[in-house]
Write a structure and sequence with these properties.
Helix content: over 70%
Shape: globular
Strand content: under 5%
Oligomer: single chain
Distance between the termini: 29 Å
CATH topology: Farnesyl Diphosphate Synthase
Largest sheet: 2 strands, antiparallel
CATH superfamily: Farnesyl Diphosphate Synthase
Radius of gyration: 19 Å
Number of strands: 2
Number of helices: 15
Number of domains: 1
CATH architecture: Orthogonal Bundle
Length: about 300
């Protein structure tokens, strides 16, 4: 049977959108004190506004595809929990990245960013709540013993914090209006974007019982596509349009941020993305047909229009 990536993409996006609503739960229902509910209701509305508003869902897709490369046991609830945790971390990072003190973006996924739709304080708290809930979900992870849960929490913490996404954002902010070299730019994006993408792959593989050899191969794959994702983002900031991107086109240029096209030129940036794509595919040579979703995802990442 031929593999249809479009069908796979739709199925996985529907699966994670359903799982996110389930795993988020309701904050207000757990409080019996009626005076608190209106304030909590506004926070919950902001959280749902930011988390359940669509998006590509690349990190959950990587969770599902990575697990499928390791095992035929498609454990729905456990994988859904893991995918939800990763997407919540991603959603929290977007809320905070959009804040005036950070990237100061008014638009996210085609709608007003969280702090514009609500207010800055509510947006900060919504991000904080999503981050906390992500780690809580992993402590509840089905089919995993305490040691596995601890290892997964450690991996997600490293990918999310100062040695990963948060550290990358700090470098990004410091690099605005500055001239940096290619090595510096790659370090920035390996942390800011790549770390959580790598975590999605390696955490799912670890949960699915991958061997050390499989984990190494998948980490090489994830490192390549994590960087390729950012290269394509930089290209789209120039070539895309606001309606398709769902965020302001040219935002990086307006803020004078260093990008791959600004350092390499547009054509060389495209070549960089293609080279990384090839590296990702080569890393999967030790896998058979079960890794086809990962191969298709690598192609999707460098050919997407948003």
């Amino acid at each position: 049977m031929n593999f249809s990536f479009d069908d796979y993409l739709r199925q996985c996006q529907h699966r994670i959108n359903t799982a996110l609503a389930v795993n988020l739960g309701s904050f207000t229902s757990s409080f019996s004190h009626t005076d608190s509910r209106p304030h909590l209701a506004r926070l919950e509305q902001a959280i749902r506004y930011s988390l359940l508003n669509g998006g590509k869902r690349v990190r959950p897709l990587l969770v599902y595809a990575s697990a499928a490369a390791i095992t035929d046991d498609n454990d729905p609830e456990g994988l859904d929990q893991l995918a939800s945790a990763l997407e919540m971390i991603h959603a929290y990072s977007l809320i905070h990245d959009d804040l005036p003190a950070m990237d100061d973006d008014d638009l996210r996924r085609g709608q007003a960013s969280c702090h514009r739709a609500f207010d800055e304080a509510t947006a900060i708290l919504a991000g904080d709540a999503l981050q906390a809930r992500a780690f809580e979900i992993i402590t509840e992870l089905n089919g995993a013993n305490a040691e596995t849960k601890l290892q997964l929490i450690k991996q997600l913490s490293a990918a999310s914090g100062q040695t990963g996404m948060v550290g990358g954002q700090a470098i990004d902010l410091a690099a605005t209006n500055q001239e940096i070299n290619l090595d510096h730019l790659e370090t920035l994006h390996r942390l800011k974007t790549g770390a959580l993408i790598r975590a999605a792959v390696t955490m799912a593989a670890h949960y699915a019982g991958a061997t050390p050899t499989q984990l190494q191969a998948l980490d090489e794959y994830a490192e390549a596509i994590g960087l390729a994702f950012q290269v394509q983002d930089d290209i789209l900031d120039i070539e895309g349009d606001t309606a398709t991107l769902g965020k302001q086109q040219g935002a990086d240029q307006a803020l004078n941020k260093p990008t791959y096209p600004s350092l390499l030129g547009l054509e060389a940036a495209r070549e960089k993305a293609q080279k990384l794509h090839q590296q990702a595919l080569e890393a999967l040579d030790c896998f058979g047909r079960q890794a086809q979703p990962l191969r298709e995802l690598a192609s999707y990442i460098i050919s997407r229009s948003h």
